[in-house]
Amino acid sequence: MTNYVKATISNRLVEITQQSNFPFMNNSYSRGRKPATNLNSDQYYANVKKSINRARKQIRRLLECNFTDEYAFVTLTFRKTSEFDITNIKTCHQKFAEFKKRLDYYLQKHGQPKFKYLGVIEFQDKNRHGAIHYHLVCNLINITNEELESIWTYGWANKKNTKSDIEENEKIANYLKKGITDPRLNGMKKYFHSHGLKSPITLEIDNLDEFYDALDKCQTTLLEGDTYHSAFLGETKYENYYVENAKELMEYVQDL
């Protein structure tokens, strides 16, 4: 028996979750990343798994919400150097922050939009001994690869413009997600993004049949579906849809 239904809408990506139990709320919960103290190994790795699963979903959601037309997929790589440790996350993030300052100056000077991005880091273990590189989805569609590399300064830049659609977004999201299971990222952010990105819309659904009818009118494709049991949520059914007419769906949602 389904007692609770929610929909998470990320522009054209729509997720429906049906649960036999109402959401579990822990009164001791408060926001913020907490140290993994007083956890046994099973609890620790269970939390790591949950963190990875949340990150996987959120990466795809943010991609769909914020890069709805054409976008650039960028890889930034560090060359070998003795000046700083290219395997150290904190150090590389500092270099990335310096790169953003130079890029912001360039974009402002040339009258281009502010840098909007969603990114992850990945470790290059084969032949590069854990060197860090960055994968980004961003709005740098009007800058050449040579210009971007000259602003990066720490090594190499590779950029490819792509159209936002069901196949490309699935491929790019999977590429972004493939490195977030690395244990070197445990206890750290799995992804990062610029300020001001649009967030998915999450709402409770009272009339599921009516919501399905609205989806059908938006030229819907079912991407995946699964049913599983959770100790807290009970019997749970998860469905993931892609809609061609997101505008019509949003008009329906606004009237709820």
TrEMBL record:
Residues 72-178 form the Replication-associated protein ORF2/G2P domain. It comes from the Bacteria. InterPro entries: ORF2/G2P_dom (IPR056906). This is Replication-associated protein ORF2/G2P domain-containing protein.
